[in-house]
Amino acid sequence: MLRGAVDTGFARVDGSLALLVQRSDQTDKSIADHETRLDNIERNRWPLPALAALTGLGSLGVALYALVAR
User: Fold this and answer.
1) How does DSSP classify residue 47?
2) Is the pLDDT of residue 26 over 90?
3) Across residues 58-68, what is the average pLDDT?
4) 5 Cβ partners below 8 Å, 6+ apart?
5) How distant, in Å, are the alpha carbons of 11, 60, 65 from that of 69?
6) What is the dihedral of CA 55, 57, 60, 65, to 10 degrees?
7) What letters, b where the CB count within 10 A reaches 16 and e where it falls short, cover 18-45?
């Protein structure tokens, strides 16, 4: 009777641990997927400093044209 109860308890604990390991593996896979996606987004984003520099150069060009066209 005691041995059966202990075996049942161990089986229950073993099942719970297996479930926790499975959830942990799924979480690790999800985190790795998110890190990969974030790396791709960071790699492919538009370089904002370059856009600011191009806008500044364009404004300078328009100002110089307006000054020369007088």
Assistant:
1) -
2) yes
3) 95
4) none
5) 88, 14, 6
6) -100
7) eeeeeeeeeeeeeeeeeeeeeeeeeeee
